[in-house]
Structure formats: C-alpha cells, structure tokens
C-alpha cells in the first residue's frame, strides 16, 4: 500500500465506529476536512459554540492558558494567573488583535488569539496563541476550532494564517495535520540578553 493510500485510509476510517454497531462516530477525515457549511461542528460538539473573543473572556482564558502551558508537553513556568493574564492582555490590546473561543455551558475549552498583518500578498492572520483545555485535547476540538477559524478568516478576506510552534511536540504534528506546512525559506532567530 502506498503512503498516500495509507494516509487516506487512516483519515477515512474510524476503528471505534467499526466496533460499535449503529455508532455515529466520525472518521478523522470528517473532522479535518469538513465542508464549508459549519454544521458538522454543531452536530459533533453540539454543546460547544465558536465565537469571537470578547474582553469578558480574558480572565477565563488566562486561567486556561496557565493550566494548559504549565502542563505536558510545554511545562512553562507560568507561576500565577496574574502573570498569564498580563501576557494575554498585552495580546488583546494590540490594535489589530483578533481572537476566537470555543465553549459551552459558560466554559471556554479552546482559544485562538492573534493579530492581523498587512502584507504584500494580502491580509494575513498571525496566531499568537492557540490552546485547548488539557482534558479535551485529542478529541477533535482543536481541529474543529481551526476549521472554523479558517472559515471565518476566509469570509473576512484573509489570505494566509501564520504561526510559530516548537519542533518535535504534539502541537507540530497537529498543525501539519491541519494543513500548515514548514516554510523552508524562513528561520526563527533569537538572542538571549
């Protein structure tokens, strides 16, 4: 079997569905390559809704951010809610900020915060932070959030989505699986002070 065939088989099958008679479980293909209607998200995650970030979301997002990035695989040292809130507040105060949340029952479970960049190729969206509640990771919510983000950005005239992530961690695999690619012509340069 070719690699291409293996990948397609992986995305179009769902081993659990085969074992559960009458199951309505979706395959990976259904999660990652939904049509443009957006109805699939309401069917699969009917308790969740995707919407624009509001200033009232800041505190809850800061709590979730601290929890997610203090844990595996990042183990960042966000020592307090105030520290993570200050960081996110700085992102939100950017004059070209755009943010989105996925949540339900008054609880946010996925967040995407970024900003618009005007580029010669058109309007770009730069993802500053994208995170999903620890317990919900690996259940399709991240992919659904990204698909809905792409849909909204296309409708708003964006031409590209750009982000940075660490190599060799599940986030890199997640982004590659969701249509991002590594730009071989770019490098990230850092100088410690």
Automatic annotation (TrEMBL):
Superkingdom of the source species: Archaea
Q: From the record, what ranges are coiled-coil?
A: none
Using the record's annotation, list all stretches that form the N-acetyltransferase domain: 48-193
Source species? Methanobacterium formicicum
Give the protein name, as stated in the record. Acetyltransferase GNAT family
**SUPFAM superfamilies for this protein:** Acyl-CoA N-acyltransferases (Nat) (SSF55729)
Q: Per its record, what are the GO molecular function terms?
A: acyltransferase activity, transferring groups other than amino-acyl groups
**Record has Transferase as a keyword:** yes
Q: Does the keyword Transcription apply?
A: no
Output the PROSITE patterns linked to this UniProt entry: GNAT
One Pfam assignment: Acetyltransf_1
Tell me which UniProt keywords the record has, alphabetically. Transferase
């Amino acid at each position: 079997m070719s690699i291409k065939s293996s990948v397609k088989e992986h995305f179009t099958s769902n081993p659990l569905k085969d074992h559960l008679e009458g199951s309505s479980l979706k395959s990976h293909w259904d999660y990652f390559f939904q049509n443009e209607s957006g109805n699939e998200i309401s069917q699969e995650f009917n308790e969740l809704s995707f919407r624009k970030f509001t200033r009232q979301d800041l505190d809850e997002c800061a709590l979730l951010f601290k929890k997610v990035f203090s844990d595996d695989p990042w183990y960042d040292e966000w020592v307090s809610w105030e520290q993570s809130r200050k960081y996110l507040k700085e992102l939100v105060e950017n004059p070209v900020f755009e943010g989105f949340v996925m949540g339900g029952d008054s609880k946010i479970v996925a967040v995407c915060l970024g900003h618009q960049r005007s580029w010669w190729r058109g309007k770009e969206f730069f993802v500053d932070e994208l995170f999903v509640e620890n317990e919900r990771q690996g259940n399709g919510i991240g992919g659904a959030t990204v698909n809905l983000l792409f849909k909204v950005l296309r409708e708003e005239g964006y031409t590209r989505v750009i982000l940075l992530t660490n190599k060799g961690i599940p986030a890199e695999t997640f982004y590659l699986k969701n249509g991002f690619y590594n730009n071989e012509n770019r490098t990230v340069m850092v100088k410690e002070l």
